[in-house]
């Protein structure tokens, strides 16, 4: 059996980015049909490399599964390390294994700079997992390339969380005592049927299966930094990879396992052997669960991922019920005792305004910068050659407002809203969305300079007498 880099180093240090990529190359070389997927280079110039493994069972349409590890570098190293074990197992499957009907892309070292520099960030000091609205970093663009080109149906994003938070919770005398946590993509723009299935069908099975193996498992609760904070699930915005994946047409999940204090005494480096075992157990449960539900997942996605239901632009967390409490295990640092403490339960998602999904958008100013943005995100557009009269509304100025007839100047960009990423496009372009590019200074500046929004949502309800001929030549 080909030893993983951690096994080869006898768990005395973390694997380097070069060792991880080299291991993937070994697996690719000995697995029929498997190949490396080069994804460019990190901000610090390190190679970004994934492994693609075809389904062994050729009789059925494979379920496409994307597995991502260590977006947070050396700070959360175990997810990526465990994915090397998983890759070894998956490349050695017998053709009659239920998991053989899955096609895999495994990207275990999504932030090689962070791994090499002992950081959670990349070489430009950016947290990759906050960059999925603008895609400013090569690492986030690499992950988006996998979403667009592999078009996964299922995604797992593997993280860890420090149980001892020196600068926050530890000052109040406690550390967290969570074991395995899973969350699902929860952006309100994701079609409701997909969110429901992930939350009410898959998540409970994942948690029950991990628990059956003797490990406490719960739905992810956002990082506890203070005993007086409220409890919510994971972030709702598209800046997180999990939600970008969900808005790209996949059922996407977060896995998080606890990480032991860095400077404790352990049999392996930073207790990495135990951390990898925790990750690997949960990753195996995940693969087994989606493999068994392959047909149901494929039917669900075929029916709903192109949904044109109204698009919810924003959401926030609210109190579950007046005075509702969530009880969580917390470890007292002084004596190591685990206690159950109560937090205000704010795990209810409160939806904001919704809009009908427009047929297309018109970008009527700042075309060069906006064209770059669209290209970066892989959204096709065309340039209008002559002015046209269209029926639309200014995107985000008044989400519920009445559309009106307006002139679209020549040189405007026409951006069709279609395909499995239609809803993502709308969330990025609508100024009223909580995942809008206009929520970031670079683009917010354009809005205020214009005085009014310059992106028009075309509602495609042509008033009588206005044919399409005036703009079709574009
Ligand atoms: Zn993380």
Count of helix runs: 13
Distinct small molecules: zinc ion
Task: Name the shape in a single word.
Answer: globular
Q: Helix/strand-derived class?
A: alpha+beta
Structural summary, described in words:
This protein is an alpha+beta fold. The chain folds into 2 domains: 5-350, Zn peptidases (Aminopeptidase); 356-472, no CATH class. Helix content is 30%, strand content 24%. It contains 13 helices and 22 strands. The chain has helices spanning 5-8, 17-30, 78-91, 112-116, 138-150, 192-212, 241-247, 272-292, 294-304, 367-377, 422-429, 441-450, 469-472; strands spanning 35-41, 47-53, 63-69, 102-107, 154-162, 174-176, 180-184, 217-219, 230-231, 251-259, 311-312, 315-318, 325-332, 338-345, 348-351, 354-355, 360-363, 382-383, 388-394, 404-408, 413-416, 455-458. An 8-stranded mixed beta sheet has the order 1-2-4-3-5-10-7-8, with helices on both faces. The protein has a 6-stranded antiparallel beta sheet with strand order 18-21-17-22-19-20, with helices on one face. β3, α3 and β4 form a beta-alpha-beta unit. α2 (17-30) runs parallel beside α3, α3 (78-91) crosses α8 (272-292) and α6 packs across α8. It is globular and about 70 Å long. The N and C termini lie far apart (59 Å). The relative contact order is 0.12. Mean pLDDT is 93; it is low at 461-474. Bound molecules: zinc ion. Zinc ion is lined by residues 71-72, 76, 159. Residues 71-72, 76, 159 line the site of zinc ion.
């Amino acid at each position: 059996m080909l030893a993983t880099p951690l096994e080869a180093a006898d768990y005395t240090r973390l694997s380097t980015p070069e060792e991880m990529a080299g291991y993937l190359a070994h697996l690719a070389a000995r697995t029929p049909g498997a190949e490396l997927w080069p994804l460019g280079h990190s901000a610090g110039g390190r190679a970004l490399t994934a492994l693609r493994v075809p389904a062994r069972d050729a009789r059925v349409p494979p379920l496409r599964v994307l597995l991502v590890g260590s977006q947070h570098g050396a700070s959360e190293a175990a997810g990526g390390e465990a994915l090397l074990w998983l890759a070894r197992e998956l490349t050695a499957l017998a053709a009659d294994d239920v998991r053989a009907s899955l096609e895999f892309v495994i990207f275990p070292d999504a932030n090689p700079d962070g791994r090499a520099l002992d950081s959670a960030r990349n070489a430009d000091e950016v947290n990759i997992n906050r960059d999925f609205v603008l895609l400013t970093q090569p690492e986030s663009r690499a992950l988006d390339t996998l979403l667009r080109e592999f078009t996964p149906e299922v995604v797992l994003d593997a993280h860890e969380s420090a149980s001892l938070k020196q600068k926050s919770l530890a000052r109040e005398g406690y550390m967290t005592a969570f074991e395995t946590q899973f969350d699902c993509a929860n952006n309100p723009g994701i079609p409701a049927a997909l969110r429901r299935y992930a939350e009410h069908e898959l998540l409970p099975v994942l948690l029950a299966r991990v628990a059956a193996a003797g490990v406490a498992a719960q739905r992810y609760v956002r990082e506890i930094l203070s005993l007086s904070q409220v409890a919510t699930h994971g972030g709702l915005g598209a800046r997180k990879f999990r939600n970008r994946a969900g808005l790209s047409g996949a059922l996407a999940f977060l896995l998080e396992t606890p990480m032991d204090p860095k400077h404790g005494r352990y049999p392996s480096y930073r207790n990495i052997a135990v951390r990898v075992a925790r990750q690997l157990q949960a990753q195996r449960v995940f693969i087994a669960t989606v493999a068994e539900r392959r047909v149901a997942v494929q039917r669900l996605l075929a029916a709903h991922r192109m949904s044109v239901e109204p698009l919810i632009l924003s959401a926030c967390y609210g109190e579950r019920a007046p005075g509702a409490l969530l009880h969580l295990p917390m470890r007292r640092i002084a004596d190591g005792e685990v206690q159950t403490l109560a937090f205000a339960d704010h795990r209810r998602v409160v939806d904001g305004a919704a809009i009908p999904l427009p047929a297309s958008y018109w970008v009527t100013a700042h075309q060069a910068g906006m064209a770059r943005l669209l290209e970066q995100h892989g959204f096709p557009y065309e340039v209008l050659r002559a002015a046209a009269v269209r029926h639309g509304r200014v995107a985000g100025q008044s989400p519920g407002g009445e559309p009106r007839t307006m002139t679209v100047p020549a040189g405007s960009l026409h951006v069709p809203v279609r395909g499995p990423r239609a809803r993502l496009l709308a969330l990025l372009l609508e100024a009223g969305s909580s995942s809008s590019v206009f929520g970031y200074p670079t683009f917010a500046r354009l809005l205020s300079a214009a005085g009014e929004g310059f992106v028009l949502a075309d509602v495609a309800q042509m008033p009588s007498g206005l044919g399409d001929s005036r703009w079709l030549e574009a």
